[in-house]
Amino acid sequence: FQQFSDPGSRKEHVKVTSEPKPGFLERLSETSGGMLIGLVTFLLAFYVLFTNEGRALRTAKSLDEGLSLVVPLDSIHSISQQNEGRLVHLAGALSTSKPLFDPSYGLSIQAVKLKRNVEMYQWVEYEDSKEYEEDGEIKKETKYSYNTEWKSEVVNSRNFDREIGHKNPSAMAVESFTAVSPNVQVGSFVLSKGLVDKIDNFKQLSLSHLEDPHADVTRRENYFYHSDNPRRPEVGDLRVSFFYAGLSGDDPHLGSADRVSLQLFLYFVTLFPNSEISKYFSVSSKVTVIARQRGDQLVPYHTKSGDVLEILYPGDLSVEEVFQKEQESNTMKTWALRAAGWLSMFVGISLMTRIFYTLVDWFPVVRDLVSVGLKVFAVCVASSLSLLTISVGWLFYRPLWALLLMLLSAVPILVARSRVLPKKQQ
């Protein structure tokens, strides 16, 4: 095997492996192992569903509590002692004490975060497999294909089916990193680490204003290339890009979206020099924060329900808009975990009952009927047990809804039973 850059190289190869068709006892042994995995998955589903309901209800009550207590601040530049320890709402532009630097590439920006992203040109292996039965054996045909791509992580070529001609370096000469400003403020208030962590709307930084930092580094578009020929890179070459989040100053050297905003700002200021239009074109990142005031710091607020409120959103949002977004996020997370819990229960039941399919898998017609029946059984039982678990989670918070869900949990089983009885009579 040679590299793809060679005109006569092969980009893929096929490997066929075969093994004797497993006997009944071997299949039964594999099914028994699957039953153990199914049991663990089945029990895990109860934990996910039960704890999710408690979390969802606790979060909803905490948000309702926060909405009833939050105090909007009149000014972000003065600190009122009357709001000490209270949950406050404020919106304003981010500010940092000093710019973030990357001296290796001669780059600096006044922002909350600066991320250096390093990619290496590497070989990547792809597999496409299919199994079939032939001459009493199970054969597996695997097609391996190789391509060169830019990857942020080192691809271990030792795990390739054929490493010869597709070998990658074992490490990158330049590492990725994220620099975070040690002091981030909105007006006179200092943001806690938890709030700073929420500033993650990264945008790519334009490098058009920078020169090549070293003789062996070439700038092309918004990348620095460690390559002899950036247009035709070789395996092991690097390219470096930069991203920023939470702009805290007027910097003209930004990504395309920010340059458009800056150009519009300059255009309108030229046309209307005495207007207040500048407040609608702030180049700095504006955020909305809801947290507890502690002196000049914004820290987590612990609710009576046992949850923590420490909220930050980009833009200028009202109190109602912030809490509406939080409620929507809580609802989406709740339904996602409910679906995950139901799926985990369905998979667990399917694995635990697969032994019945193994016992009859040599009878084609019976095998298909049993397979369909087991899937219907798994769907019905998983649905009933999921509803029952959710209702138990609600029992201490919403008893009437819990009793209704308990009644609904019996419906899938009754439906499945009503279909089984006529078949028995026939």
As for the number of domains, it is 2
> How many angstroms separate the termini?
64 Å
Spatial shape = flat
- In the predicted model, the low-confidence regions spanning at least 5 consecutive residues are 1-10, 255-269, 273-282
Tell me the strand percentage band: 25-35%
Question: What is the overall pLDDT average?
Answer: 82
- Largest β-sheet summary: 8 strands, antiparallel
Radius of gyration: 30 Å
For the secondary structure, the number of strands is 19
The run of helices and strands is EHEEEEEEEEEHEEEEHEEEEEHHHH
Structural class: alpha+beta
Number of helices: 7
What level of helicity do the residues show?
25-40%
Task: Please tell me about this protein's structure.
- The chain has 426 residues and is an alpha+beta fold.
- It has 2 domains: 23-58 and 327-419, no CATH class; 82-122 and 146-317, no CATH class.
- Helix content is 39%, strand content 27%.
- It is built from 7 helices and 19 strands.
- The protein has helices spanning 24-69, 193-197, 256-271, 319-359, 364-394, 399-409, 411-425; strands spanning 12-20, 71-72, 87-96, 100-102, 107-109, 111-134, 137-151, 177-180, 184-186, 189-191, 203-204, 218-220, 223-226, 238-247, 286-294, 297-299, 301-302, 308-309, 311-314.
- The strands form 4 sheets. Strands 1, 6, 7, 8, 11, 12, 13 and 14 form an 8-stranded antiparallel sheet that branches.
- The longest helix has 46 residues, at 24-69.
- The radius of gyration is 30 Å and the shape is flat.
